[in-house]
Specification:
The protein is an alpha+beta fold and about 160 residues long. The chain is built from five helices and six strands, in the order ααββαααββββ. It is globular and about 60 Å long.
């Protein structure tokens, strides 16, 4: 890599760090919890454990049976997660996650109704932004969102660096 390329890369990293600081994002300690434990805890409900997404069959690209879902449901979930503030959601188009989504990094979205748990699982794949493969040498990060039948977002998970 040329000196000019390194300088550009450094400037991009500094800009990202400044944005993260402005958004008051929490530092990510990558070795905090085992991924499997995190997934297990997110799949626990009052009605029992939702099956792990990789163990479910009959996923669908047909979102016509998706629970009713509004921006208010998304807003409530994101503010409740503690990772977003009303201020940075007002300018959501400047957030990295939105940019990655609009640039096509989120792919292969599918849904699966879990009727006995009164919820719907959505699974998706996210292309890595910095390299051609994930840390565990896969082509994509695999994540999921859990939505109650009422449209309330219960939880979500993505092992990518942005979470």
């Amino acid at each position: 890599m040329s000196d000019q390329g390194r300088s550009k890369r450094k400037a991009e990293l500094v800009a990202l760090a400044v944005k993260a600081h402005e958004m008051k994002l929490q530092r990510i300690d990558e070795d905090d919890e085992d991924t499997s434990d995190v997934i297990t805890s997110k799949l626990k409900t009052e009605k029992g454990a939702i099956p792990r997404p990789e163990n479910l069959q009959s996923w669908s690209y047909d979102f016509s049976k998706m629970p009713p879902f509004t921006f208010a449901d998304l807003y409530t979930y994101l503010i409740g997660s503690g990772e977003y503030t009303p201020e940075n959601l007002k300018s959501f188009k400047s957030l990295l996650g939105y940019k990655l989504f609009s640039d096509g990094h989120v792919q292969d979205c599918m849904m699966h109704c879990v009727h006995d748990m009164s919820c719907t699982l959505f699974k998706f794949k996210v292309l890595p932004t910095e390299r051609s493969k994930t840390d565990d040498n896969k082509q994509t990060y695999n994540g999921f969102i859990i939505m109650e039948d009422s449209g309330v977002v219960k939880d979500g998970f993505c092992p990518c660096k942005g979470g």
